[in-house]
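Dataset card, provenance and construction

Sequences and ligand SMILES were collected as paired inputs. For each pair, a complete structure of the chain with the small molecule in place was predicted and serialized as structure tokens. The example below shows a pair involving adenosine-5'-triphosphate. Curators did not alter the output after generation; any descriptive sentences attached to a record were derived from the structure itself.
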Amino acid sequence: MNNKKEPLLINRAKSVRYAFKGALLLLKTEPSIKIQFCIAVLVSIAGFYFEISTTEWMIQILAIALVMSIEGANTAIEEIANFIHPEYHIKIGKIKDLAAGAVFIASVFAVIVGLIIYLPKIF
Ligand SMILES: Nc1ncnc2c1ncn2[C@@H]1O[C@H](COP(=O)(O)OP(=O)(O)OP(=O)(O)O)[C@@H](O)[C@H]1O
């Protein structure tokens, strides 16, 4: 909870700690994030192997961050949906589909980025 009496720096440091805890929780408990993390490691190994440029590294890191952060938001939306309405409801289905759609869009474009970087280096 936001404590207004706390000094700003302490308050911000606590927020970073909670956010770090959330990121660790995602990595420890979410199968999708675990898979994405493994893909990120493999693609990073490929980056070193093919000696991709600084610009390619930046775009690759951005693509990885985009997919994993949207997956985190998707997980949070699923948690809220399950908490507020654990039973079947057409609206909950739509909310979850929309959140999953956001991950799908980011993933498709991340794959395109990967193809643009690596296809010319492989063939
Ligand atoms: N309570 C519900 N009411 C209606 N439809 C639901 C409900 N729960 C899930 N669904 C449908 O099932 C799909 C999968 O939902 P679920 O909560 O299992 O997510 P998931 O895809 O398994 O999660 P993850 O992305 O973490 O693998 C949703 O996109 C939605 O279409």
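Derived descriptions for this record:
The chain has a mean pLDDT of 95.
Helices lie at 8-29, 31-49, 54-84, 90-122.
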